[in-house]
Design brief:
This protein is an alpha+beta fold and 292 residues long. The chain has helices spanning 23-33, 37-57, 108-112, 142-152, 187-200, 203-208, 213-221, 242-250, 254-262, 282-291, and strands spanning 4-9, 15-21, 63-69, 76-81, 87-91, 100-102, 105-106, 117-123, 130-135, 157-165, 171-181, 227-233, 267-270, 277-280. The strands form 4 sheets. A 5-stranded antiparallel beta sheet has the order 10-11-2-1-12, sandwiched between helices. Strand 13 and strand 14 form a beta hairpin. Zinc ion binds at residues 238, 240, 271, 273-274, 276.
């Protein structure tokens, strides 16, 4: 089954909702980066959040970058979403040690750390990108996204994310939801939503029980109801190309390129987001030098 996300509204129109099944994209990220379980969970949660946030942004040709830096062993997590919700991501240290809260429960907060910030960079296809940043609250990422929206974008939000890593280190399930209150939402709606979130419980458990993104939103929204407006297939997707790498090489300048060419060996460039390797022969480099 491919990953997909669903967007909708509460029946009264006061709550904007989105939920996602992200098992495949998180599996792909784990495969590309060779992550250990804690890094799989941390990167996976960030990718899951970014996909929903990128999809909600809805700016043609725009993008949304989420960067989490908490001082923990994983270093910096960087994830990028296109306007559809297709994502790519990278972490500084993919092979972090196993840390559990209790046997079988990964401690993502300890891996990410809490001494740092969550930063959102929105490329809205305007002159300057919008950049917002807040302090991390728990390093668990869901809480941090929630705090980011409340503090930096003044939008009351609840974000829950889950990645379940199996005994064989594969990704069993991944997904999440994000609900936002629109201005003017009455107290009864806020109360009902808080109760729904409590009642629904952990995302990982719901996903593991076989609930779909639609089911999860049904649980969370309860009596508020939900009208589904759009279903979108999403995946791990990198936009690198030989052309882009060539442009990056040109930007190195004549001196450095001449040095690379004179080395006389094939020159390889690894994409940081995917497992594509671009190889350039000294002849290729000569061709690029002619364009500088
Ligand atoms: Zn790539």
């Amino acid at each position: 089954m491919s990953d997909y996300l669903v967007r909708g509204m509460s029946l009264d129109g006061f709550v904007k909702v989105v939920a996602i099944r992200s098992t495949e994209m998180v599996s792909r990220a784990a495969q590309i980066h060779g992550t250990t379980p804690n890094a799989t969970a941390a990167l996976g949660r960030a990718l899951t959040a970014a996909s929903m946030m990128g999809n909600m942004q809805k700016v043609e040709n725009g993008s949304m970058t989420l960067q989490i830096r908490g001082g923990g062993p994983i270093g910096t997590i960087t994830v990028v979403s296109d306007p559809v919700g297709n994502v790519r991501g990278v972490v500084t240290e993919p092979r972090v040690p196993l840390v559990e809260k209790y046997p079988g429960k990964l401690d993502v907060g300890a891996t990410v750390g809490t001494d740092g910030t969550i930063t959102v960079i929105r490329d809205l296809q305007m002159k300057e990108p919008y950049i917002g940043s807040t302090e991390l609250v728990s390093g668990e990422i869901g809480d941090d996204v929630t705090a980011y929206f409340a503090q930096s974008e003044q939008t009351p939000t609840a974000c829950a994310l889950g990645v379940l890593v199996d005994r064989d280190l594969s990704v069993k399930v991944a997904g999440g939801y994000l609900v936002q209150l629109l201005p003017g939402a009455p107290d009864e709606v806020i109360d009902a939503l808080e109760q729904g979130i409590q009642r629904a419980g952990a995302v990982t458990k719901m996903l593991d029980d076989g609930l779909t993104p639609e089911d999860i939103l049904g649980q969370v929204m309860g009596a508020l109801g939900v009208v589904f407006m759009e279903t979108t297939e999403v995946s791990y997707k990198c936009y690198c190309s030989r052309d882009r790498v060539t442009k990056a090489l040109i930007s190195l300048g004549k001196d450095e390129l001449t040095e690379i060419m004179n080395d006389g060996k094939p020159f390889t460039v690894d994409c940081q987001f995917c497992d594509t390797v671009y190889s350039f022969t000294p002849e290729d480099i000569r061709g690029i030098l002619e364009k500088v």
